[in-house]
């Protein structure tokens, strides 16, 4: 196995007229020379390699120059040559391949989500969890949902339509979380939801940063309880390769993916494409379970031989071209699913949901001076979706019985089609659109001060949905009118935003962050959010964080669209959140690391149903207290990681009882154990424990609190990594999820009809990765 190397650069600069001669030697920590290190001078075509002795001699032709040293599996920081430098002696530690980092080094990797700039995770002013490409391969994560269920403070619930869940005790359909890809929003437009299904896979992920806590002061609306930022390989300049991924598994699952990036001097082209299809989990027995699934629904109403079939396929794609700081790109997906278990349905076989979302962007990164950088970017989103379901509706069924249907007989196909088939569609529309422009300035006047500020213009032009009971592609009326439910005037919204953040280092031990954001929206007018953080590093391996943040979530068009109002008299205000946090990160040794954080969330103005067709702001204040912790340990060839989450949420009055933590897990444990049997063969096991939970019965017609027992799920992954075959590097994996085929349930937190959701049984997957 390769070892982390300490690269020592001893540079001597000789001034000779209009040029610089830079000489030195590169060695490892045992003082042995390192050869074949690529050295380049920025803005010139000069490229050279060190000799076998590690010595180099480089002519820098300009009055000022920047040297960049690079070796496979290493990124070495640049060395700037200026008139003020005569003799330069530097010791630099290389940023090695993530597959070779020690635990202590992993805790000090760079993150960008906490401050919109690269910084050490240990001093970032946020509670942030990082999942690297190394973690993804070792743990066998195939999609974003499987990754998130192993993050402290996060709950991910599979419905096989899209993931329900959330962060820090606020669970729904992740609608309180902001989803980003390379810092750009990738929510769906219709309701700003983090619609996480099979389109967010792990083939193109370099790193995922999960920020816990409010982040509106940086990112604006909907970063209420956190941010998920997916950083892709193809968008990273240091990815200069081609990868082919192939996967096959149970439930007729198969996938094919290509990720590539190519640097050609100042020109770079990159992209990612994936095809995925699967029958997903087979629920044919569960949908007939009148106790655990469709309790309270008349069993005789359903067809005697009710069938269950589902197929999901997705096509996520990305491409980017850049040249000397200018770039254009696209990020998007097409997705078709079968709606899974979201609703109790009279015809599961016929159901489907089709989604199209594309983000086009163009921008510029420009270095104005050595201290000032600017980024400007224009973004255009387009979305359409359509589908069909046959959800059971008790009120309609009771009316049919009243009008003569025999309740001892199942519904006929004709009765189902005429009364329960619900077609929703934007297929014939021009699609919802979003136009966004950003300007961000990064000013670093000194090594101890950083200022980031920016302006954003954001306009939504959203569409509602055409509904039909018999036409698969109903006509779409795009006339803007208060009487047109598909395009009310206030579905077109715009806002202007300003944000400013200051970060200051004090006495080399304190890192202060102050930031604020002002948003002006054409409906709910102005809103201000603030954040502050103080990170104290009393010792080299200790950091203590004191954090405060504010956030808000905007009303969705569903919440606004059900109001009999116009845009001038809207009365629904954004949901607000304040969060206080204190945390500590401690490296006891290079192989024993711990972090722990305690927080309190206070939410107001939560939007709740006021009646069947309207919403209102609740006057109830919601308090959530929680603790999250992680422990990492390595001994010999064994590495282990344990995460623990504790949540206590205010009591809810429901079904005649006052219940604390209603629908929220009090205790969660996630852990991993990795054994490196050889340099290339790894065995990994993961355990997920969910405590017993009290939840609302998922059938809204049954006012009852149910108990879902605690459960434990174990996954196992075998990996052969980085096997060299000619010019290719091959990784193979075998993944077994839910090893012991346990039966377990999670709550129906949106009250869609099912009492609770059955989670997947045992599944097997094989992955093959070729890297060229």
From TrEMBL:
Entry's Gene Ontology molecular function annotations: siderophore uptake transmembrane transporter activity
GO biological process assignments: siderophore transmembrane transport
Stretch forming the signal peptide: 1-18
Subcellular location: Cell outer membrane
Chief subcellular location: membrane
Membrane topology field: Multi-pass membrane protein
UniProt entry keywords in alphabetical sequence: Cell outer membrane, Membrane, Receptor, Signal, TonB box, Transmembrane, Transmembrane beta strand, Transport
The TonB-dependent receptor plug domain, residue ranges: 123-227
Domain TonB-dependent receptor-like beta-barrel: 348-738
A matching Pfam family: CarboxypepD_reg
GO cellular component: cell outer membrane
Family: Belongs to the TonB-dependent receptor family.
Entry protein name: TonB-dependent receptor
């Amino acid at each position: 196995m390769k070892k982390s190397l300490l690269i020592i650069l001893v540079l001597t600069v000789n001034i000779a007229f209009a040029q610089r001669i830079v000489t030195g030697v590169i060695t490892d920590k045992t003082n042995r020379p390192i050869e074949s290190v690529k050295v380049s001078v920025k803005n010139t075509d000069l490229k050279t390699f060190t000799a076998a002795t590690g010595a180099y001699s480089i002519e820098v032709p300009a009055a000022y120059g920047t040297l960049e040293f690079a070796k496979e599996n290493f990124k070495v920081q640049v060395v700037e040559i200026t008139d003020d430098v005569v003799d330069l002696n530097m010791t630099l530690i290389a940023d090695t391949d993530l597959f070779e980092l020690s635990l202590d080094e992993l805790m000090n990797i760079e993150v960008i989500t906490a401050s919109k700039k690269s910084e050490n995770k240990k001093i970032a002013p946020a509670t942030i969890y990082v999942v690297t490409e190394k973690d993804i391969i070792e743990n066998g994560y195939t999609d974003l949902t499987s990754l998130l269920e192993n993050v402290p403070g996060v709950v991910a619930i599979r419905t096989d339509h899209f993931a329900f869940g959330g962060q820090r005790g606020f669970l729904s359909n992740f609608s309180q979380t902001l989803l980003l890809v390379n810092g750009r929003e990738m929510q769906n437009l219709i309701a700003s939801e983090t619609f996480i299904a099979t389109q967010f896979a792990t083939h193109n992920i370099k790193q995922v940063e999960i920020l816990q806590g409010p982040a509106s002061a940086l990112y604006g609306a909907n970063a209420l309880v956190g941010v998920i930022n997916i950083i892709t390989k193809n968008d990273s300049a240091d990815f200069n390769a081609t990868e082919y991924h192939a996967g096959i598994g149970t439930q007729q699952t198969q996938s094919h993916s290509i990720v590539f990036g190519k640097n050609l001097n100042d020109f770079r082209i990159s992209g990612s494409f994936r095809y995925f299809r699967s029958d997903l989990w087979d629920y044919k027995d569960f949908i007939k379970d009148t106790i655990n699934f469709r309790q309270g629904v008349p069993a005789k109403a359903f067809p005697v031989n009710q069938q269950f079939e589902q197929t999901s396929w997705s096509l996520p794609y990305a491409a980017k071209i850049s040249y000397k700081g200018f770039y254009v790109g696209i990020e998007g997906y097409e997705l078709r699913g079968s709606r899974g278990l979201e609703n109790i349905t009279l015809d599961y076989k016929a159901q489907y949901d089709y989604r199209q979302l594309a983000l086009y962007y163009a921008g510029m990164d420009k270095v104005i001076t050595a201290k000032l950088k600017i980024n400007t970017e224009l973004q255009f989103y387009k979305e359409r979706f359509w589908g069909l379901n046959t959800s059971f509706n008790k009120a309609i069924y009771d009316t049919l019985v009243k009008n003569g249907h025999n309740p001892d007989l199942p519904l006929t196909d004709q009765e189902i089609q005429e009364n329960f088939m619900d077609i929703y569609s934007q297929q014939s529309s021009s699609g919802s659109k979003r136009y966004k422009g950003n300007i961000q300035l990064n000013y670093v006047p000194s090594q101890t001060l950083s200022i980031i500020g920016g302006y954003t213009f954001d306009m939504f032009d959203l569409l509602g949905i055409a509904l039909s009971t018999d036409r698969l592609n109903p006509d779409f009326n795009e006339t803007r009118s208060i009487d047109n439910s598909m395009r009310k005037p206030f579905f077109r919204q715009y806002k202007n935003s300003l944000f400013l953040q200051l970060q200051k280092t004090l006495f080399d031990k304190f890192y202060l962050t102050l930031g604020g954001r002002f948003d002006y929206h054409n409906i709910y007018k102005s809103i201000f959010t603030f954040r502050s953080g103080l990170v104290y590093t009393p010792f080299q391996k200790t950091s203590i964080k004191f954090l405060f943040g504010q956030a808000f979530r905007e009303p969705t068009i569903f919440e606004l669209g059900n109001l009999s109002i116009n845009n001038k008299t809207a009365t629904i205000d954004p949901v607000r959140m304040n969060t206080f946090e204190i945390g500590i990160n401690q490296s006891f040794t290079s192989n024993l690391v711990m972090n722990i954080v305690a927080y309190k969330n206070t939410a107001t103005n939560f939007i709740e149903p006021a009646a069947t067709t309207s919403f209102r702001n609740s006057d109830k204040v919601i308090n959530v207290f929680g603790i999250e912790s992680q422990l990492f340990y390595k001994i010999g060839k064994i590495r282990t990681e344990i995460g623990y989450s504790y949540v206590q949420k205010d009591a809810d009055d429901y079904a005649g009882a006052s219940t604390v933590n209603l629908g929220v897990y009090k205790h969660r444990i996630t852990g991993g154990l990795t054994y490196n049997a050889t340099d290339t063969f790894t065995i990994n096991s993961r355990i997920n424990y969910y405590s017993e939970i009290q939840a609302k019965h998922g059938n809204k017609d049954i006012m009852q609190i149910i108990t879902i027992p605690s459960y434990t799920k174990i996954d196992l992954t075998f990996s052969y990594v980085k096997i060299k075959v000619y010019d290719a590097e091959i990784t193979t994996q075998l993944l077994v999820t839910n090893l012991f085929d346990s039966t377990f349930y999670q709550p129906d937190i949106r009250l869609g009809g099912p009492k609770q959701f059955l989670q997947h049984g045992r599944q097997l997957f094989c992955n093959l990765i070729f890297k060229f």
